[in-house]
Structure formats: C-alpha cells, structure tokens
Amino acid sequence: MTIKRVILIGLTILAIAKVILSLVASWNEPQIQSRLELYQTNLFLSSTEWQGDNNDNSLDLTAARDAIIGNKPFQKAQQQYQQVLESAQTTKSQLIAKLQELSSEPVLTLTNGETSEAIVEVITDTPVSPQQQQWEKSLVQEEKLIDELDLRLGILQVQQGETKAALETWTNLVASAQTPDLVPVAHTSSVQTAQVLIALWQEPVNLLPNAEAKIKGNLDGWFSDRALTQLYQLQQNQDQLASLQTKKQQRAEQAILKLGLISLIPGVGGLLGVGLVIFLLVQWLLQGKKSLLATNGGIPWETPWDGEVIWQVLIFGFFFIGQILLPLLIPILFAVLGLNPGNFTVQMKAFYTLFSYILLAASGLLVLYFSIKPFLPVSEDWFSLKFRSNWILWGLGGYLVALPSVVIVSLINQQLWQGKGGSNPILPLVLEGNDSIAMFIFGLTACVAAPLFEEIIFRGFLLPSLTRYLPVWGAIVTSGLLFAIAHLSLSEVLPLATLGIVLGLVYTRSRNLLAPMLLHSLWNSGTLLSLFILGSQ
User: Fold this and answer.
1) How many CA atoms lie within 13 A of 258 on its CB side?
2) Closest Cα to residue 523, out of 434, 414, 380, 399?
3) Separation between Cα atoms, residue 292 and residue 472, nearest integer Å
4) Fewer CB atoms < 10 Å away: N or C end of the chain?
5) Is residue 303 classed as helix, strand or coil in its secondary structure?
6) Element spanning 121, H or E
7) DSSP readout, 339-408?
8) Please, is 6 exposed, middle or buried when counting C-beta atoms within 10 Å of its C-beta (0-12, 13-18, 19+)?
9) What are the residues facing 119 on neighbouring strands?
10) How many domains are there within the chain?
11) Distance of CA 461 to CAs 169, 211, 220, 455, 485, Å?
C-alpha cells in the first residue's frame, strides 16, 4: 500500500467522522421550515385585516386574500403555533435531560430583571465543555421561543373567543418565572408582557401604565395590532384606533401582495412541473429510446482515471479541505486580523460567507485540476459548456420538474423529522437579515458561486466518473445522495437528494453543465427570494 493511499484512508476516516458528527449535531437543531411556516402564518393573519372599499382594485385584493388564506385562518394559525410550541417544549425537555446527564446537580436558573437576559448555569465540579455550552445556549433559545409562542398563542385564543384559555396560557408563562425548577431563566420582558395581556382581558380590566410600550416592544405584526386594539378600545382612544386601523390596512395590503408573490412561482411552477412530468412519462412509454427521458440515458462517459482519483478529489478536495481544514484556518486568520465573526453585522456575515465559499471552491477546483492533469486533454463530453444548445430549456424544464418532486418529498420529510434536523446556516441569516446589500452578497454565494462549484464537482466530475463503475442511473443516485450529505443537515438529506437526482438527470440527458447550473441557480434564487420576502415583515 502506497503512502498516498494511507494518507487518503486517514483523511477518509476524518471526513466520515466529521460528517457523522455534523449530522448527529443537527439532530436537535430546528429546521428553517418551521420558522418559515410561522412567518407565512403571520402574513396570513395580517392579510385578514384587509377591508377594501367597492372599487375594482379593492375587490381584486379581497378576492386574492380569500383565495390565499382560505377558511378559518385563525384556527389554522392557532394549530400551527400549537404544533411549534409542542415541538419546542419537547426540544427543551431533551436539552434539560442532556445537561442533567453531565451534572449530578440540577440545572439551576437565575433571573436578571434589569437586562432581561437569560442566564443558565450548570453547577458542576468539571469544566464546562463546548458541547455543554452549546446545549445551554440552545436551552436559553428554546425557552425564549416558548415564551414568545405563549404570548402569541394566547392572542389567537382570544381571537377565537377562548378568553379563559388565553388567560391560563399567559398565567402559566408568568408562573414559570417563579418556579425554581429544571428550566432556563424566565425572560422578564416576556413575563411583563404576559401580565399586560392578562390585565387587558381579565375581569375586571386593569390597565397597566406601561401597557403600550410592552406590547410594542415584545409583539409585532397582527399580534401587536390585536393587543393595541384592545388597549385603545378600553382607553376609548379614538385617535389612536383610527391611526392603527390605517396602518393595519397598509400592512394587510402588503401581506396579500407578499403572499401572492411567494405563492405564485411555486404554485404555477409546481402545476407546470406536474404536467411536464406526466408528459415526459407518457412520451417515454410511447416512444421508448426516442423519448426525451431516454436521451443519452444509458451512455456512460469514457473515464480515463480510476477510483483512486475520484476518491482523492471527493475526500481531500471537498470534504477534508472544505469541512475540516478551512473551518479551522479561516477563524484563525480572522483572529490574527483582530476580527471576531461572532460580532459581525449581517453584511459582514454575508461577506464572510462569500469569502469562505470562494476559498472552498478555489481549493476544491485546484485539487480537481491537479488530480486529473495527467489525463488531460479529455473528450469533449467532460465539463462541457455548450452555449449554443438547448441548455436553457433543459434547465428550466428541470426546475419545473424539481418543484413538485422536492415539495412532495419535503412534506414527507417534515412528518419524519417534526421540525428537527437542522438547516443550511445561511438561510436564517437571510431570513432575519432584511438587508438589501447582504441579500445581494448572499445571492452571489448561493445563486452564482454554489451552482458553479457544486455542479462542476458533483455533476461535472463525480457523476461521469462513477459511470466507470456504475450504470448511469446508479451514478445519478449516488452523486445526488453525496451532494445531499455534503450539506451536513439531516433534515435536508432527502429533499436535497431528490434535487440532486433531478440535477443528475438533466446533466446526463443534456450533456451540458450549463443546464444543471441554471437549474441549481434558479432553485437557490427562489429560496432566497421567499426568505427575503418573509423576513421583510
């Protein structure tokens, strides 16, 4: 056995260990999908406030609102919030159990009433490990999320006439701050807001002096409007009610337009995609090898290199450098420069992400080049970029097919993971950043850099190379699965594997890398656009 193979074996063990640890770490991380559903639910709630006049534009918006939100929007919203609350409570219990296993002492809680900051301490004689610190941080975040969900759930209960249940929800939130149990710190600001809401809806009513400030500080959107409406009605403040009503109408109109925009592309595209899938299958059944699906379907690439080169590029060029080496070196580089990524603004995080990805792509492509250099030149089928062909049609068609395929798999995936399994770390930054410059930089990363690099590696190199040992369909599935695993989130494996298979089908049929690059870019662009629209509220 050569020294090179010994090194590759060692790197393979490291890479596999890193992947497994990352996937396991994502087990209890929340999916971005759960938050997206809540953001979309909030838009639904805002849109219910629309009260148009009798002109044509108002009638159109009213019809659009009714078509989008459907029947019983408040009941559906309450069910959605209840599901997320139950998931958060389960996650909190699991985190407490894990922390308890690390310590013979209970997980204590402290309350900082001045700063409203949560402080969680695990009393133990052993040093606190990074994993324990992460669990403590996650525990605080889950408790904060539960507080926010309780505040909003109570308002939804009031909206549906369940005032008694709402008062109980808020009272339990307040009581949790006074119970020295195995729970994180109760967040003072949320507790005070719950007390304000109790005072607004209890009998007899008790208007607290800081009610308006607490509502505006801890609630937003429809929830803030609903609580402020109750407050101003009790105060008989007609001026504030009129002003609030105007703002509600403006937000409702914006919500309807946003919902229409984020529903239009997936909705219309999904229907077209279903039709296209049916057409392709019927054509395949009728025409067989002459159909579009059969184009180049069974023709493998002539691969001049062996499995060791494939192994080297994938393990050393992608997983080791990208998942182990660079994540270690980049923070050291920034530390030497006196920069702390943890303190970056959203724009700086966007630049940091783009810089890191460019380094990853450059390193991976260099390894690929030097690995296959002895075999150059290769046939024209390899890394083909044919601008004068039908690659746009293949890319657009693949995108339409991917829409319903990935959505169906994602729905099944949601049932399997119940909101857990982690997500791409870029997505929450885009969702919460609400910054046009940061959005542009994230767009460069996700819609330009990622499609170029990942399609060269997974479709341009890996898939054709695997046809030396596997049939074309086997190479498509294998490269798609590795593409999904490389994103290091359990919840994304099935949806991304489905997307990877569609990308592989498009490439093997078109024999043009521009087609899957276009598909990949369209997919990421649609995702970022939806996140930006949802986050802008």
Assistant:
1) 24
2) 399
3) 15
4) N
5) coil
6) strand 118-122
7) --GGG--HHHHHHHHHHHHHHHHHHHHHHHHHHHGGGPSPPTTTT---SSSSHHHHHHHHHHHHHHHHHH
8) exposed
9) 110
10) 1
11) 56, 62, 49, 8, 17
> pLDDT tens for residues 155-194?
999 988 899 999 999 998 888 766 544 444 446 788 888 8
- Tell me phi and psi for residue 420, to 5 degrees: -105, 180
463 within 8 A of 504, measured Cβ to Cβ: yes
What gap in Å lies between CA 492 and CA 11, rounded to an integer?
25
Give the HSE-up count for residue 504: Cα atoms under 13 Å, Cβ half-sphere.
31
Q: Record the tokens describing residue 84, joined without a space.
A: 């997320």
Q: Is residue 507 part of a domain?
A: yes
Per-chain mean pLDDT for the chain: 82
Structural domain contains residue 173 = no
In this structure, is residue 473 part of a structural domain?
yes
3-state secondary structure labels for all residues of 48-109 = CCCCCCCCHHHHHHHHHHHHHHCCCHHHHHHHHHHHHHHHHHHHHHHHHHHHHHHCCCCEEE
Q: Which of 192, 188, 35, 43 minimizes the C-alpha distance to 115? A: 188
How far is the C-alpha of 287 from the C-alpha of 281, rounded, in Å? 10
Q: Is 304 helix (H, G, I), strand (E, B) or coil?
A: coil
DSSP for 430-473 reads: HHHH--HHHHHHHHIIIIIIHHHHHIIIIIIIIHHHHTTTS-HH
Q: Which amino acid appears at position 11 of this protein?
A: L
- 111-158 pLDDT, tens digit per residue, is 433 333 444 444 344 455 666 776 777 778 778 888 888 999 999 999
